[in-house]
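Lecture 7 notes. Example A: sequence first, then its structure tokens.
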Amino acid sequence: MSTFLLKGCWIGALHAPDRYFRGTVEEPGETGLRLGDPVIVKFENNTITLQARLTPASGRYSLEGMPSSDFVLASFIRKDGEVSREADQPGEEQLWGGDLFTRQPGAQPTTS
């Protein structure tokens, strides 16, 4: 497992399928990324539940350049302030980070 830190902002409306985080590497950890590298993080929904509105039931984050067959981005949260729906306002530069695991050889990617 490796922890990394990115500085950037969310692009797109909350719950939009094409929403993503764009930033640069502030602390690469042991990810193979380099300080200052541009990165994109996306949340990929696997299923949708129909209630009063469409709500993502499950999914996963993906870090551009890190293939999900080899790496699992286990978490991606705000590191420099409040963690809530208000934490990921589009256009506001923030520090976000996560934990990246390397899949064991022979392990198959799972779908949630």
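Example B, a different protein, same format:
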Amino acid sequence: MLSCPWAKCLEEIGSNPRLLALGQFLWKKNPKGLSEWTIDLDKLKQQVWGDEVTPTSTVRSLVSDFRKHLEAHNVPLTISVHDTRDKRRVRCTLPKDFKFDLS
């Protein structure tokens, strides 16, 4: 199993349940440790907020807060939220040369 590249960040945000749920869910949805992966936006909303009707602007705001924590720990994860009729997803990308530990 691959170690989460932002495990230290998760420790730091542990007191914020939504940020923690977001960070854990993003990595859980990448079991093979790929540099790019996609998550269904509604599944993310369900996991983090407990519903699928949370506004996408709220998701984007939480993602922005999460990215600030990642940047502080030098984790170059790009997270993009897409919410159109045919594309309701969250795309995560790490640089191909980004190394993280295997355990």
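Note on Example B: The beta strands are 36-40, 78-83, 88-93. The chain has a mean pLDDT of 91.
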